[in-house]
Amino acid sequence: MKCRKCGERAVINMRQHKLALCGEHFLEWVPEQCERFIEKYKMFTRADKILVAISGGKDSLGLWDILHRLGYHADGLYIGLGIDGRRSPSGDGVGYSDESHRLAQKFADERGLKLTVVEVEQTYGATIPELAVISNRGREKPCSVCGLNKRYIMNRAAHDGDYTVLATGHNLDDEAAVLMQNTLTWQSGYLVRQSPVLEANRPGLARKVKPLCRFYEREMAAYAIVRGLEYIYDECPHAVGSTTIWYKEILSQMEEQRPGAKLQFYLSFLQAKEQGLFALKASDAELHACEKCGQPTSAPGECSFCRLWDKIREVKGARLPASVAFTQPDISSFAPVESDR
Ligand code: Q46
Ligand code: ZN
Ligand code: ZN
User: Fold this and answer.
1) Cα dihedral 175, 181, 184, 185 sign
2) Which atom of ligand 1 lies at the shortest distance from residue 147's CA?
3) What predicted TM-score, i.e. pTM, was given to this entire model?
């Protein structure tokens, strides 16, 4: 297979685009495409201050690398979840959090980029797996409390650090899998919110964007490898056996038979939405400020993050701090969110 642009040996063949490229031209093509998506979906401009959620994996580091190459002002946020390695009685495990933190920090240091780190255990008093056990919300699978904490911390860090936009590394495979899951059960509330851009239409909520939403996972893996990015190869150990992975496998089988199936599924959905297939219910737009932390929440009173941690404090007592301190001083403010923001 030869590169369509120069005739050299291709490193990737993207059947859905009928396009094979050599390493050099692939490394040019990816940021060009990304820039196109950023503009098409009006994600941000060079005047924006972007916070990129970094997991240490190929997608988030790839995204940070692309934005940096394109000249955007993009800082990173790493959330230390305290997953695996040190608590295993046999001492085995991949040390997922420690290793992903190390790689995220290395990436930032080598490029002189700013990485803000929020360690959940140090900041709030328990790791994500401990939190799942104590709260009784997913003893084996801490994903639901993990997701709740990540969303909260990302939003808070974006707000407190005065970022205008929060970018995540979700790729097409992620988006198509979630879409399939929500379509099969017609989760209209989730479907209406699935988008390359989630506007900050509520006070205190950060604007969220997914610049990689049209890149296949294999394209991002190829980008990381050809570009020589060092990323954590292992998935989070709790991702094993998840329904999302199951849907990804089904979609990949479809893709195998019909190149472009995943992309078409996702793009047709976006088009249908643009044509008004799903409408936002009035109740979805209603929002209150959490009476404890000030973050936006759908019901009056305390937000689900504060309620969860209140429960943990009852169990673990004085060990837990009453307030948080981020490791970067510039986002250490814990003032309630202004309701008119
Ligand atoms: S990090 Fe957290 Fe994921 Fe691990 S515990 Fe589950 S949600 S699988 S993206
Ligand atoms: Zn070429
Ligand atoms: Zn709260």
Assistant:
1) negative
2) 7
3) 0.88
Do 54 and 60 form a contact (C-beta atoms < 8 A)?
yes
d(CA 167, CA 68): 13
β-strand pairing of 115-119 with 73-80: parallel
pLDDT at 317: 63
For 8-24, the pLDDT digits (tens) are: 999 999 999 999 999 99
Residue 329 CB-density burial (10 A; 0-12 exposed, 13-18 middle, 19+ buried): exposed
CB of 120 sitting under 6 A from ligand 1: no
Task: Report whether residue 315 contacts ligand 1, using a CB cutoff of 6 Å.
Answer: no
Is residue 239 in contact with ligand 1, taking CB distance under 6 Å?
yes
Ligand 1: does its nearest atom lie under 6 Å from the Cβ of 280?
no
Which residues does the chain have with pLDDT short of 50? 85-88, 318, 320-341
> Closest ligand 1 atom to the C-alpha of 129?
5
Tell me: the pLDDT tens digits for 174-202?
999 999 999 999 988 889 989 999 998 77
- Do 297 and 307 meet the contact criterion of CB atoms below 8 Å apart? no
CA of 237 to the centre of ligand 1 (A): 8
- Report the separation in Å between the CA atom of 30 and the middle of ligand 2, taken as the mean of its atom positions: 13
> E strands within 31-133?
49-54, 73-80, 115-119
Output the pLDDT for position 171.
Answer: 98
Ligand 2 mean position, distance from CA 6 (Å) = 4
Measured CA to CA, the distance from residue 174 to residue 63 in angstroms comes to: 15
Q: Does 146 sit in the ligand 1 pocket, CB within 6 Å?
A: yes
